[in-house]
Amino acid sequence: MKSLWLILSNPRYFAPAWVFASLNILFGTWAIYIPEVKEDLQIDKATLGIAIFFLSLGVFTVFPVASRIINRLGVGKATWIGVLLICATAVLPMLAPSFITLALGLYLFGATNGFTDISMNTLVTEIEKEDRQNFMSASHGFFSLGGVLAGLGSFMIPVFDNRVLHMAIAIALVLVVNLMFHRQYRHILAAPIEKEPFSFRNFKPLLLLGLFSFVVMGSEGAIVDWSGLFLKEVSLAPEAIWGAGFLGFQVMMTLGRFLGDAISARIGSVKIVTLGAGLAIIGYLLVLSTHMYLAISGFALTGLGFSVIVPELFRIGGNVKGVESSQGVAFIAGTGYSGFLVGPVILGFVAEHISLNFTFITLLACSILVFLATFILRARNKRKRSSSV
């Protein structure tokens, strides 16, 4: 909790952390309206999966150029521009009158999300280096906190009865707070490093981390996109709690990330990934029970399991020797969002042609693979330590 107090007590750390929250406030507000958008446009699950694919495609296509733009603008200025862009594009999917305009709106929203994601993670990496203070996990906790705020907003759906108005209020909240604090980071530039020519050897340490990022971020995206439909169509939950699975996931994700720095320091990075994957497996088993309250509990437990994995990956990715921090972060983000790119399409077709239940069986299998892979990683680390003695 030390890193949480650091953020809450110092505007220098609160300012970038609020950018994390901002991203998920807007993304989460879109997510809670997915069932309504699906019904209004009269599209099936497979078509919805294709639309969500365009959101992921927007995220993914910005990665090859993001680090170059960030380095040219300066990481602080790039982060502020990213905030303005997500505020400008967040309302587009809510206004879409057709599948084509929905896909286009999601593509633009996804591209601005991807740029802001890389910028803000690089910004925190640079501040950590400069101040020798770790607050990456807690910053991701603020990302989850943004999801909690968006999830709480789901209970206001019957009150607003207007998704465009709801998103406009979320945008106003994000914009006002960022206007108050953006001067704390706008001036920050990435620390110069000794540049080396591209070498596979430099990126080799990132490959397994990228695989973990692919599975975990893909699973996070699946829960965001499909938990509401699962509760509605499989668990037969009433409309008032369609967002409860997303909310539970985000609450526990937030809690885990605020505690993550201390836990990681105590048990180590590999063990915390093993523990997280194990909790996710139990969570998915509860979801697959299909009982409404057990499923909600399962989404929450899965959030706790995944909570500390991705922040650890971003921190490591931003500190690889010979690789610029923005490039390392972009690599981890790129492999992670590849899960977002292919996951919604595949899971959408699986849900339509087999069952929505089977999509979560697939996610359970992926979590089991991550769990087993951590034991392979631990064995490798032991062999390295023994050979160096």
Describe the structure.
This protein has 389 residues and is mostly helical. Helices cover 83% and strands 0% of the residues. The chain has helices at residues 2-9, 11-32, 34-41, 45-73, 75-89, 92-95, 99-131, 136-153, 157-160, 163-181, 200-203, 206-233, 244-267, 269-287, 292-306, 309-317, 325-353, 356-388. α1 crosses α2 (11-32) and α2 (11-32) runs antiparallel to α10 (163-181). The protein starts with a helix and ends with a helix.
Sheet having the most strands: none
| Overall average residue pLDDT | 83
Name the CATH superfamily classification: MFS general substrate transporter like domains
- The span between the termini is 36 Å
Order of helices and strands: HHHHHHHHHHHHHHHHHH
CATH architecture: Up-down Bundle
Counting structural domains, the number is 1
Work out the strand percent. Answer: under 5%
Shape: globular
CATH topology: Growth Hormone, Chain: A
Low-confidence stretches: none
How many helices in DSSP terms? 18
Helical content stands at over 70%
CATH class: Mainly Alpha
Q: What radius of gyration results from the CA coordinates?
A: 20 Å
Structural class estimated from helices and strands: mainly alpha
Number of DSSP E strands? 0
Features:
389 residues; Growth Hormone, Chain: A; 83% helix
What's this, in brief?
The chain is mainly α and 389 residues long. It contains 18 helices and no strands.
